[in-house]
Structure formats: structure tokens, C-alpha cells
Amino acid sequence: MHVPFTMDFRNPLGTPWKQHWEDCLWLMTEAEAMGFDALLIQEHFFSEDGYSPSVPVFLTALAERTSRARIGSYTYILPIHHAAQLAQETAVLDHFSEGRLDVCVGAGHNPAEYLAWGYSPKTRPSRMEEGLSVLKGAWTERPFNFDGRYYTLDNVGVYPEPFQKPHPPLWVAATSPPAAARAGRHGAFLHGASIDPEFHEAYLLGREEAGLSRETARISNPWSFTVTQEDPEVVWQRNREHYQRRWRYYSDVRSGMGDDELNYGLEAEGNDLYRDAELIGTAEHVIETMRELIAPMPLTDIVHSGPAAGIPIRTEGYESLKAFADTVLPELKSW
Question: In this model, does residue 35 exceed pLDDT 80?
Fold first, then answer.
């Protein structure tokens, strides 16, 4: 089992921006030292608390500050980027990291991000489909030509070529069976957010349609972990505002797009809203919960979602992550 680490870089407390970003990058470099396999940078736009506003800047910083862990996007919102430009940007990052880059793209789930670019959210599937074809073609074909609904490219050459051949590992983020199937058909790995067997089967069938084996697939799912010796409900009550802010964002934007609520399969420990989205407890509780939860799933990666924004990064956030790395991480990586 591979275990990447991510965090959302949100700044709800209004810490000076550079200090806040330095704190986030510091924790990510600490995560490399703790043994996490990859460090993943998220992307969103127009968030007042600065929800991970610049994938290439933060990935460049991580490429300079780390040496072992893979680094990657989690996730470029492909339909609101020009796919050929993104191919060039990520080729540069691939060289800068000396081949440690993974690229994840997704359709996004915030209607405001589409509307700001003048796109209808209803075009998500078709823009994603075409964007994936352009991204892969621009990475690998010189010159590259494409004539589609959204792109017309004539003798385009993307330079430099990617450091990794034929291109960096491609992941697609998805939360529904049709989106998972698209990831499989394009030969990508799957960054999922679903425990539904139909979701995973749709992806694997898509890979088979593309002539790829199930055995070579990689599938991830994220969870929010807090490893502690404290009473979990004391931790929840202390950080409830931060935990609920994390999940309210996803609930609001997904509702606006007409997407289903996310479900991570955890049992609610109380009646508080979103309590069932946070796994809080001792290392033993976390390990046994995860062992039972993922047993029926074909996962190869478990993504640690990082401390909820607002939890002090260099104290409580670090301490929980270090406890996870010392006690839970070795067990997960042995699965």
C-alpha cells in the first residue's frame, strides 16, 4: 500500500500568507522525512481562505525542498486549463523534480470555477474527455494535431518533452462510476473518493476496454486521520469548527453542481454534522477501522488528507501526523 500526504493550504485564520504557505510546505517536507510516499498539491480558485491557489508554485517549492518522495497535483481542474499548456507546464515540473512528478487531473466540482471562465458546468464530461486526449497527445506527439469540439491544434509542439517516458504517471480524480470509467479508458490511474464497489468496477472495466490489465491499476481513496491518545470526542469538540469547515465546503460546492455527498464509510461517533467524516482515535483504533473498511476494496493507495485548516500546523497538526507516521503508517504500507 502506498500512502501519500496532502493538505488544502486553506488559511481561515488570516495568518500572513507567506508565513502560512511556509508552514504548509514545512509540514509537507516533514511528511517526506516521516516516510510518506508522495506529497500532493490540491487546486481551487476564488476561495476567500486561499484554498491551494497555485499548483505549479507549490510543486516547484516541493521539488526544491525534497529529494525522495514523489510530488504531484491533486487535482488540476483540467476543463478550465488549456490542456496543451498544462502538458508544457507539467513537462517542466517533471524535469525540475528529476522525474518525481505524478499528474492528476479531474473535472472539478465547483460551479463557480466553470462560470468564471465562461463555461457551462454541464460541459464537464465532454471537456474532460477532450482535455485528456489533448493532454496525452501534447505530451507524446510532435507535432501534435487535434480537431475537436473545444480544441483545434495544428502542428503544435510541446517542449521540453517530459523527463519520464512517455510522460509522467497520469491519474484522474473521480467520484462517480462514469468518471471512473473514463479514467480507465484513458489508461490513467484513479484517485477516487468513493467506497462504492460499482465505482471501482467501472474503473477496472474501463481499463480492460483500453486493453490494460486490472493487475497494473492503481486506485486511491483519501481519509482524514487524527491519531491521538486523547478522548476522540475531546479532540472533536476542540477542533469541530475546523473539521466542519472542511466538509461544509465540499458539501456546498457538490450540491451546487448536483453531485452526491461524499461518503468515506466511517461510522458516526455522535450526532454532530460531519462527525462521520473524521477518523479520530488511537493508532490501534485507526488501524482496525481501516483494515475492516478497505478489505473489500481494490485500493493500492491511501491518501492522508492532512490536518483540517485552522488546526495549528507546527504543533497539533505536526504531532498528530508524527503519531500517525510512527504507529499507523508502517502498518498501512505493509498491506
Answer: yes
The pLDDT, as a whole number, for residue 271 is 77
Q: Where are the alpha helices (DSSP H) in the chain?
A: 17-34, 55-65, 83-96, 111-116, 124-140, 177-185, 197-209, 232-257, 283-294, 318-327, 329-333
Closest alpha carbon to 57 in 32, 83, 22: 22
Helix, strand, coil % over all residues of the chain, rounded to 5: 45, 15, 35
Helices 318-327/283-294 angle, 10° precision: 70
Q: How many domains does the chain have?
A: 1
Q: CA 242, 331, 220, 100 torsion: positive or negative?
A: positive
* Cα–Cα distance for residue pair 217/299, rounded to 1 Å: 9
DSSP state of 335: -
pTM score of the predicted model: 0.97
Helix/strand/coil for 145: strand
The mean pLDDT value for 151-162 works out to 96
Instruction: Give SS3 for 186.
Output: coil
pLDDT for residue 99: 98
Domain interval for residue 29: 5-333
Q: Is 330 left (phi over 0), alpha (psi -120 to 50) or beta?
A: alpha
Three cell numbers, residue 118? 465562461
CATH number for 304 = 3.20.20.30
Residue 232, C-beta contacts closer than 8 angstroms, at least 6 positions apart: 226, 269, 280, 281, 285
* Measured CA distances, 155 to 79, 91, 130, 140 (Å): 22, 18, 17, 13
Q: Assign residue 258 a region: left if phi > 0, alpha if psi is -120 to 50, beta otherwise?
A: left
User: Each residue of 63-96: pLDDT tens digit?
Assistant: 999 999 999 999 999 999 999 999 999 999 999 9
Residues β-bridged to residue 279 = 225
Mean of the per-residue pLDDT values for the chain?
Answer: 96
